[in-house]
Amino acid sequence: MEGFGGFASTTTGGLSDNVFLIRFSGLLCCLLCLVACESLPESYPPPEQRPPITSPGPDAMMASMAGPDADSYIVKDIYGPFGNAPWRWSKREPTVKVLVVSNENLNFSTDFAIWDDGFKSTGPLEISFFVNGKLLDKVRYTTPGGKHFEKPVPSGWLALNTEATVALSVDKLYTSPRDKAQFGVILARMGLKP
Amino acid sequence: MIRVVPILFGALFTLATAWSLGMLLLRRVVPSLDAWEGRLLGLIAGSACLSEVMFALCAAKLLYSGALFALGVASIGYAIYSGAFRPHGKPFEPLAPLWRWVFIAVFAAFTWYGFFNALAPEHSSDGMSYHLSQVLIYQRAHGFPRITTDIYASLSEGIEMLYLFAFEFGKHSAAALVHYAFLIALVFLVLAYGRRMGRPAVGVAAALFTYTCPLMLRDATTAYIDVAVPAVLFALFYLLQVWDETVDPKMRSQWLVPIGILAGFGYAVKYTAFLAVPYALGFVAWKLWRAHKPLVRPVLVVALLAAVMILPWMLKNWIEVANPLSPFANRIFPNPYVHVSFEDGYRRYFSTGGLSSRWQIPLEVTLKGGQLGGFLGPLFLLTPLALLSLRFRQGRQLLLAALVLGCTYFGNILTRFLLPAVPFISLALALAIANLPWLLLALVAANAIACWPAMYGFYSTPGSWQLYEVPIKAALRRQSEDAYLSEDPDYKIVRMIGGLVPPNDRIFAIGQGGKSYLPREVLIGYQGALNEVMQDILWTALFQDYQPLSSLKFDFPAREFRKLRVVLKGNQPDQQWSMAEVRIFDGSTELPRDPGWRLRAQPNPWDVQLAFDNSPVTRWRSWQPASAGMYVEVDFPRPQRVSSVAVESSHDSVNAKIALEGMGTDGQWSTVSDHPKISAHPIRVSLRMAAIAELKARGIQYLVIHPEDPGANDFFRYPAAWGLSLVGQESGAHLYRIQ
Question: Which of residues 10-39 of A touch B (CB under 8 A)?
């Protein structure tokens, strides 16, 4: 087996030929060591104070049928948009889900309308209002037209950062003579309000 | 096809420049070598020189393509002019025809796979997410910008400096080709070493063992750096052996220069290769001591030159992130940029690699590769046989080098971290059966068959990191880069982000790959202290465990203090300590935070303001295991009357061990109370908006959420509750603009 000795050098020149490189290396090391590092403060003053976190705006937990994201709130029994109208027809139990972003003194709130022509067919309507499946109230409406309902929700019914279902239930539906489709109320918005 | 030209030019120009510098460096010692080993060692040593020059250009912010072109032309021109490329030395004996043709056949077959994969558009995980993303940042900034929010920018980047040179001309694939060239150089160096030993068959067999190793080939075809590490370390080993065998004392001194440079370059390439320095120093010192020759000066020369290669990286880190060894050693060099907890978690994860037992390692690293990121091939199950090579001097040297240079493996048990040992083991294995040439030939043939990519499926875990195909169309750009890369979801996501986010806006993501194709600033959740704080803020809004739902109140008779401290009195190794707010009262009135107060904390003093900002989504955290003596302190500008202190914190059990200490007007510290009254601190409103406001305050304009991110569904379902607008979607990832 041939060893490395078989390739012994034939040229001259020693370490001194690289003395510049070695001296330069030493100088570079020294210079680099002199570079100062960032000095970090030991203590700090109090920072800018953040404002207290307040309840979100009044519409943060309201599902508006006029909004482009209305479909994301709907759980059931609400028809698709009617042209560009800011409302939608409901069926028997229109239900929406909203994220509870505050649980301080919330009210069930809804704006809806009872259609005049439908009212002629159905007569007075009894509408029940539910939060998370619990009956909050029941109201008998004896006239058609725009309605607003608002009532405090018991605090134990809702949990912060969870979804709540908000629904109303119509006792009688109007049936279209043309296509037998059934309609409840004209829903504009529904949800929770501080 | 024409699009391949700049890629090949970028890679070849980089290699030619490195080679020229190397041949100039070695021109005085080359005559003692065979022409080929001189060229190969010249390439590796020149790579170290070019890397150092690139570092200097980046530090001086002089990184322009014109400057690089001039550097390359000047280096190549001067090397030609000075005759550095002229062959010298006594050539090796020609290979026996049988072994020559075996080598050519196997090498050519595997090169068919390797070359076209390296030439294909680069889409490796780490290559896209950090090796080349740093390169992209440096290229755009014409040098090193100060980066404090990405741990990967603090790793030594010796090979990335070469990628940067190639990237300037040929972009991503040029960088991958440079990496592939290191494998070619390594293979031929192993072959040359066998011939230098006088055992050419051993050289051929070991070279092919190294080249056909599935992970070696896979890794080398990407812009990773793991194959450059064994190439550098083996070249260093080679130089040391040549130095040891050189008789002429002047020539021996000359060899110390490339030895020192390569020893230091190991660290510059990858931290785990720092052992090259003690290995080289130990080798030189031991040999000289045994020969009763002076050793101080040679050892100092090697150490000094190694330091020249290492110190720039340390100093860069020291200046930029206050820790020369960042992202490690954060307990020794505490700094605001990398948390100790990150380092602990990183070490913990990579020392187990997700395996339930270390007994799984042998099969995992040789055959399966599913959990440890690739496999070395069935041949390496025979590694114990390499011990038979101990009967040869070269065998002992090879195994010693494998042992020393591979001993960091258990710090990170991914298979890639075994690659430095592969050439040494390959040679030792071949040497062990060198006296049975028919067996060696059979082993070469069997290994070549077993390591042929079509055979991987018979023993490896499906989906493990390996070569699957020869993407000729993509490599030759007959299929567009965009079309080829679009098979990778990360690429599609960053392409979407790049199209929607303005150039100077800042993006935050819990995780995001593919950044080398995204010329935007993306902060990734785990990659820096600031990033982790922002991640913590988001998760505080999402998860109750993070929220300050406890109030710990220290009540005591009112008196005057110069300083107050909330102190941890016990250890809790499984928890960190945190506090969202510290409130100080005189009677029932909370003291307003006076600008004259000075706040301190130990550890993590840099975040102490987060406990005094009145925000429930931010908190001071120890970011390391809770231990006795940690504190948060308020220093009043004048004696302050105080009757109670309240700490708002999460429900961590470590809070049972806190106490309040005060410094009275007499300058003496005393325990004021160690029994805080714990009560609930209910949060009645969503913290989402507040969390996003904190990100905005930290300069973030966009947020990327992936389906696998914790709490992703909450973002997807309630963007309005966060104050986010969805601006784009791709492969499940959602891009939001902060309103």
Answer: 10-15, 17-18, 21-22, 25-26, 28-29, 32-33, 35, 37-38
